[in-house]
Amino acid sequence: MSMSPKIVVVGCGISGICAARKLVQSGFTDVKILEATARGGGRIKTGRFGNSIIEIGANWIHGPSEENPVFCLARQYGLLDPEALNPENQAMDIKGHPPWVPNVFTSSGRKLNAEDVYPAQDMFVELLSDISDLHTQGGEPCPSVGEFIRSEVPQRVAERWKDDDATTRSLQMSAISNLLKAECCVNGTHSMDEVGLASYGLYKTLPGLDCTFPGGYEGLVKNLMSELPSDLVIFNKPVRCVHWTQSEPRENAVIVECDDGERFTADHVIVTVPLGYLKKHQATLFRPPLPLHKMHSVQRLGFGTNNKIFVEFDSPWWDAECDAIYLLWEDEDVLEQQRTDVHSSWIRKLFGFTVLKPTEKYGHVLCGWIAGHESEHMETLSEVEVTRAITQLVHQFTGNPTITPKRTLHSQWFHDPWTCGSYSYPAIGCSAQDLENMIEPLPTKGSQSRPLQVLFAGEATHPCYYSTVHGAILAGWREADRLISHYSKSKL
Ligand SMILES: Cc1cc2nc3c(=O)[nH]c(=O)nc-3n(C[C@H](O)[C@H](O)[C@H](O)COP(=O)(O)OP(=O)(O)OC[C@H]3O[C@@H](n4cnc5c(N)ncnc54)[C@H](O)[C@@H]3O)c2cc1C
After folding, report:
1. Closest C-alpha to ligand 1, atom 48
2. Residue 63 domain-assigned (yes or no)
3. C-beta 54 within 6 A of ligand 1
C-alpha cells in the first residue's frame, strides 16, 4: 500500500486489539489505538488474590472448539492445559450449561443432596430451551423471559409435581428462584424480566466444554499486543468526541478529540467502547450525533452488571469434587415479587459460588456471583462490609458459626467509568435489527460524504456472540475486513 489511510481505533480491549492487528498484518501502516486507561485488555483483566491468579473480568472460553477464535489463538500461543486441547472436550455440546458438580445449601443451614433439586433444574433448563425455540417459531406470548417463566411454572408444577407435598414443592420453587438469579449473572441483567423473550434465542453457543486460561486470560492480550508495533497504542488517552461528517466530502474526514484536547485526524475510526459507556455518553461522543435509529438501538439493547466476590477460606466446607455451591433461600418463591430493599438484603441476590480449581494451585478459594442493582450497590461497600456480609451468609447456610473467610475481593464493573457495567443482552423490545443497527458504519448508506468514517466493533456489535470474548474478537476482525475489502476494491 503506497499511501496508507489513517486509522484510529478507540479502545484497547480485545476487539480493538484484534481489529488493529488484522489491519497491520494486512499492510496498513498508519494505525493507532487510543485507550482511556493505562492498560490493554479492558474487560479481560487478570489480578492477584493472595497467592492466586484470579480473573476479575472474563473467566471462560465459552465453547472452546475450532470455530472459536479465542480457543484457536490460545492454542496457537500455547496458553491452554492439555485437557482443553483434547478433541473430546471440543466435541462436547453443553449448550451453555456446564456439567458442574453442585453442592446445595439452604437458608436454614441444611445441606441437600444434589438430586433433591433435580426436578427444578430439569424444569428450568427445559423452560430456557423452549424460549430459545420460541424465537425460531416466531411466537411471543409475553415480553420477557422472566414473565414467561413465571407464567409457565404454575402449570408445569401442577402437572408434574401434583403428588408432592407442600414442603417439597416449596423447595423446588426456592430452587427455581435461585436458578433465575444465576441466569441474571449469565445474562448480565438485573432481572430476567428485563430480557426480551423473542430475542433470547439470538444468542448462539459453540460446541466445547468451557475452559479457563491456567496462566490468566490476560496472557492472550499480552501475546496479541506483542505482535503490534510498540508505539501503536497510546494509553491514558480518553476520547471525548468523534467529529465525522454527514454532508460534504473532505480530506481527513474524521477528527478524534481527546479529553486532554489533543486531536487526531483519521480517514477511519473504529469505535470499540463498551455499550454501557456508549449509553451514557452517546449524546456527546459523536458530532454530529448518531442517526436516530442507531441511537435508539443503543438505548434499547440491555447492558447490566455481573460482579464476582472472591472469598478465601482456611479449609473447604464443600465437597472435594464440588464445582459450584448454590444457596437456596427457603422463604423465596419464584412466583412472588423479590425483596426490593437493596441496602439491607443485597446479599440475597448472590446465587452462590464457583470453586476455583485445582485446589493445589488456588487453595480454598470461591468465586461468588451477583448481578443487577444489588451488585451495583455491593460495589459501593468496603471490603470489610462485603466480608461481613459473606461471613454471615456462610454461617447461616452452613449452620456453622466458626467458618470465617480469610479475605475477600470484589470486582466493580458498574463503577468502572470506561465500562459502566459488565456486558450486553437483548432487552425487552429488541430484535436482530438492533444489533444490525449497532454494526452499521457511518455515514449510513446513500450519503454523499466519505464512506466508512466511523465503524463499530466490540462485544455488543456481534449478532449472535454478544457478551463474549469471541464475539468481541470476531467483531474487531469484521470491521478490519470491511476496511481491507474497501481498499482492495478501490485499488482495482
Ligand atoms: C465479570 C465479567 C465476566 C465475564 N466473563 C466472560 C467469560 O467467562 N467468557 C467470555 O467470553 N466473556 C466474558 N465476559 C465478557 C468479555 O469480557 C467481554 O465481552 C470482552 O472482553 C469485551 O471486549 P471489548 O473489546 O468489546 O470491550 P472492552 O474489553 O470493554 O474494551 C473497550 C476498551 O475501551 C476503552 N474505552 C472506553 N471508553 C473510552 C474512551 N472514551 N476513549 C478511549 N478508550 C475508551 C476501555 O477502557 C476498554 O479498554 C465477562 C465480562 C465481565 C465483566
Report:
1. 42
2. no
3. no
pLDDT band at 139 (very low <50, low <70, confident <90, very high): low
Domain end, chosen from 382, 410, 438, is at 410
Q: Of the residues 360, 386, 410, which one is the last residue of a structural domain?
A: 410
**Quick one: pLDDT band at residue 492, thresholds 50, 70, 90?**
very low
Determine the distance separating the centroid of ligand 1 and the alpha carbon of 199, expressed in angstroms.
22
Is the pLDDT assigned to residue 436 strictly greater than 60?
Answer: yes
Distance CA 153, CA 334 (A): 9
In the chain, the N- to C-terminal Cα span, in Å, equals 13
Pairwise CA distance, residues 208 & 66, whole Å: 9
Distance 27 CA to ligand 1 centre (A): 27
Mean per-residue pLDDT, 440-453: 92
413 lines ligand 1 (CB under 6 A): yes
CATH of the domain at 380: 3.90.660.10
| pLDDT tens column, 253-299 | 899 999 999 999 999 999 999 999 999 999 999 999 999 999 999 99
Q: Could you give the CA distance from residue 70 to residue 19 in angstroms, rounded to a whole number?
A: 14
Q: Is 26 exposed, middle or buried (0-12, 13-18, 19+ CB in 10 A)?
A: middle
Q: Decide: 64 and 84 in contact? Cβ < 8 Å.
A: yes
Residue 417 located in a structural domain: no
pLDDT digits (tens, 9 = 90+) for 64-122: 999 999 999 999 999 999 999 998 888 888 777 788 999 999 999 999 999 999 999 99
Q: Ligand 1, atom 14: nearest CA belongs to which residue?
A: 58
- Regarding pTM above 0.90, the answer is yes
The residue segments making up the domain with residue 160 are: 97-204+306-410
Is position 129 within any domain? Answer: yes
Residue from 17, 68, 273 to probe ligand 1 pocket by mutation (most atoms less than 8 Å from CB): 273
